[in-house]
Design a protein that fits this description.
The protein starts with 5 loop residues before the first helix and ends with a helix. It has helices spanning about 5-25, 45-70, 85-100, 110-115. The chain has two domains: about 1-30; about 35-115, no CATH class. The radius of gyration is 19 Å and the shape is elongated. The longest helix has 25 residues, at about 45-70. By secondary structure, the chain is mostly helical. This is DDE Tnp4 domain-containing protein.
């Protein structure tokens, strides 16, 4: 098991703080499904509902990622000389998906559905 040195810990802490600041500025609230407390047989209602919502959103994100990976070129690890062009490739594949493949979800009319997503 590798040891974590002070410089590695400083790098990890600095990177996570930068990520935290960026997500805070963009008003992105990251969540993960809840774990059951020790000794309990089920989650409380509020934690169960938030876990369901996280799972619901995650399924849509994973389905969108699967659509992108259907492109053979983006299905594997790209060579390092292609790094400057990855944004262009993904943008092209996503625009083709948007044009020729049906949407992942139907348009929601109620404001409650928009707020939940």
């Amino acid at each position: 098991m590798p040891l974590i040195t002070a410089s590695v810990l400083r790098y990890i802490t600095g990177a996570s703080m930068c990520l935290f600041q960026l997500t805070h500025e963009l008003e992105i609230h990251a969540q993960m499904p809840s774990f059951m407390p020790r000794g309990s047989k089920q989650l409380p209602a509020d934690l169960a509902n938030s876990s369901r919502l996280v799972t619901k959103v995650r399924l849509v994100v994973e389905a969108a990622n699967a659509r992108i990976k259907r492109c053979k070129y983006l299905d594997h690890i790209l060579p390092t000389n292609q790094v400057p062009y990855i944004d262009d490739y993904i943008e092209s594949v996503c625009s083709l998906c948007n044009k020729f493949i049906s949407p992942l979800s139907a348009n929601c009319e109620s404001s409650e559905d928009v707020l939940c997503a």
